[in-house]
Amino acid sequence: MANDPDAKRLLWFVFAGSRGGLNRLKIISKVRENPFNINQLAKELSLDYKAIQHHIRVLEKNNLITSVGEKYGVTYFISTYLEVNMESFEEIERKLDKSK
Hints:
Layout: H1 5-15, H2 21-33, H3 38-45, H4 49-61, E1 65-68, E2 75-78, H5 80-84, H6 86-98
Antiparallel strand pairs: 1-2
């Protein structure tokens, strides 16, 4: 299932084809290193709490992250779907990094 063309298209849209894609890319990169909650991500990335909330909703809607816990204790992890398609994610990450 690696290099699934539908997954690649989705990843391109979420990270390169829509506003806020670079912030979503940063969120995924951070969550790959270590699980975080929204407040921790906001501090880590120096972004507004509400902005992180919005990006988290987009990432969850597209099945790229999963959450564990309730209310303020919710911690976010990389989804299995993204883990399976990590090669495509890393390729997009490299291409977007070069275009900065």
